[in-house]
Amino acid sequence: MGSYISIAYLLFFLPITVFVYIVMPKKVKPFVLLTASVVFAYLISNFYIAYLVITTVSVYVAALLMEKSKQKCRDALPAAENREEKKAIKRRYASKQRLIVVLVIILNIGILSVLKYSQFFVTNINSIIRLFDSGYKIPLPKFAACIGISFYTLQAVSYVHDVYKDKIKADKNFGRLALFMSFFPIIMEGPICRYSDTAMALWEGKRIDYKNFTFGLQRIAFGIMKKVVAADRLNIIVTAIFREFEYRNFDGGIVFLGAVLYTIELYMEFSGTIDVVIGTAEIFGIKIPENFRQPFFSKSITEFWQRWHITLGTWFRDYIFYPVTMSKGMKKLTKTCRKKLGRDYGPMPASIIAFFCVWACNGLWHGAGWEFIMFGMYHFVLISLGSLILPLSNKVLPRLHIDRNKLPYRIFTILRTCILVCLGEMLFNARGAKEAIKMVKVLFTKFTFKSFFNGSIFTIGMDRFDYIVLLCMVAIVFAVGLMKEKGISPREWLAGKHIVLRWSVYLGMLLVIILFGAYGTGYIPINPIYANF
Amino acid sequence: MDRLIEILEDIQPDADYETCTTLIDDHILGSLQIISLVAEIEDEFDISIPTVEIKPENFNSAQALWEMIQRLEDE
Q1: Shared domain check, A182 and A52
Q2: Mutate to test the interface with A, among B36, B45, B71 (most CBs of A within 10 A)
Q3: What pLDDT score was predicted for residue A297?
């Protein structure tokens, strides 16, 4: 089972799990989900599931040890005779807890780093050795990782960190923690959940009701439509433009088209899969966090990252950005800079340092390669520049009589953000840092629209019909996004309509999937992109 | 409380801090303003705000901020 949008998952795994869940009594229901999750993890990762077990056991034990230490501290405090003694007792236990949390985070980030980054690390060391002509080469290590390791490791780190910081209590129920770590819809591509938001609901064993069941199915159908009609259709043209661009001598116009189409492909694939994931959880009455909120309506790159892969962004915000900016040294820097640089620019130095840490980690999280680091640094520069320019534009725009809230200005900022995002995704999907630089060069030195008018664009993997289907699908997704932007829930809106219209839409979705899905010869379905991160 | 409102108005003048309860939800206070706010509050009230306290429910209104300050002063 390589994907959530597969026959094996949609026609066998999910229906069987739902059926067994329905027939089992309430007390057994959480164990049905746990068993299904373990089976699913084994099916996608085979024996590499051992890494998931190590992570789960390590955070379970570490959290309990910290909880025990906190309890001992609470018991010892009443015996203290004065404030100083109390502080000393707190410090003693806090240092023990800090040691535990640091060790367990090092263990888990260490596993992730070795499995994911050791090849990249050794390749770079070999490149340095080659500079000295020594002829020596370190053999490349070969590790296979458990699928979804980048997602569940972040969940594990947030769990132990939150226990350490007293945000949550350590869970004594190993089954509940194991289900939180391995819940089958989220294990491959997220969203990255927080223990405080999902663990209890997962273990509750809620009854499947009609509304959740139908709403879940609708969300799943919409996700499948995005993936098979749009993302799979784009796979061949995107692969051709990105992998053969030098050999086929594509001009800048085609490279730009590739950047735009790859961005659409990535969004349709990732958000489509997340629709299936959230729809699956909804069937079981479990609300998991949204990962997208109409990202292409963003008016700045900062806003884009508050709407795209939201759970990764909030993870970096809570566990890297704020701990860095709120560290003693950075607070001191902010106070000093506020006195010297004023209200607007005072917090900039500390936040730019934190942005750098966040975007270096974000780039590396997406993959072990210089192109991913470049992608991270591209967004770091854009976000830092955006923060630096904002106070200036706040003063300049009113003087030029430009109203930020007027439609033309909003459209301009949305288009500007979309173009910047597409360029970033181009760096992201390039075959390496050198190739990415070449593509940027072609984009700015050989830009022409000729290929759009001489028919060349219909020869790279999509014909006229494919473009029309793609445009219709983009229009549907745009219309649904627009409704959500206006605060209307499309599914609630549809549920209030006449039965004929409602069922016409449901059957229409099915027909679109069957008739316009990119199946058969001439198409190659796209592999889940985010599952490899 | 008056001093807190003064700090808030200095950091982000475009809000009615007496009534607004959605400072974070409506993006009136962004991450840069929060960094400044924490630094100023710590200085003014001689407290230390740990990162776990940086959550929307503590920063969504002047009242919530005031309650957090008082709680941290007592600790």
Answers
A1: yes
A2: B36
A3: 94
Question: Which tokens in the block code for residue A288?
Answer: 């998991």
Whether chain A has a CB inside 8 Å of the CB on B72: the answer is no
A283 and A312 share a domain? no
Residues in chain A, total: 533
The answer, yes or no, to whether residue A522 has pLDDT greater than 70, is: no
Q: Kindly report the three-state secondary structure assignment for every residue of A299-332.
A: CCHHHHHHHCCHHHHHHHHHHHHHHHHCCHHHHH
My answer on whether A396 and A339 are in the same domain is yes
Q: Read off the pLDDT band of A76 (50, 70, 90).
A: confident
- In a domain, residue A2? The reply is no
Residue B41, min C-alpha distance to chain A (Å): 11
Domain that holds residue B26: 2-74
**Structure confidence at residue A530 (pLDDT):** 67
pLDDT: is A482 or A402 the higher one? Answer: A482
Q: What is the pLDDT of residues B33-72, one digit of tens each?
A: 888 888 888 888 888 888 888 888 899 999 999 999 999 8
pLDDT digits (tens, 9 = 90+) for A389-407: 888 888 888 888 888 888 8
Given a contact cutoff of 8 angstroms between Cβ atoms, the answer to whether B35 and A334 are in contact is yes
Q: Chain A: nearest CA to B7, how far in angstroms?
A: 11
Q: Measure the CA–CA gap between A350 and A355, rounded to whole angstroms.
A: 9
Give the separation between CA A340 and CA B75, rounded to whole angstroms. 32
A325/chain B closest Cα distance in angstroms: 7
At residue B16 the predicted structure's pLDDT band, cuts being 50, 70 and 90, is confident
pLDDT at res. B69: 93
Q: A interface mutation test: which of B8, B32, B38 has the most A CBs within 10 A?
A: B32
Q: Which residue of B has its CA nearest to A343?
A: B11
What residue type is A219 in one-letter code? R
User: How many folded domains does chain B comprise?
Assistant: 1
Closest CA to A18 of A6, A4, A33: A33
Nearest Cα residue in chain B from A346: B36
Kindly state whether B51 is in contact with chain A, defined as any CB-CB distance less than 8 angstroms.
Answer: yes
Sort out which chain A residues have CB atoms less than 8 A from B10's CB and list them: 343
Write down which residue in A398, A421, A444 finishes a domain: A421
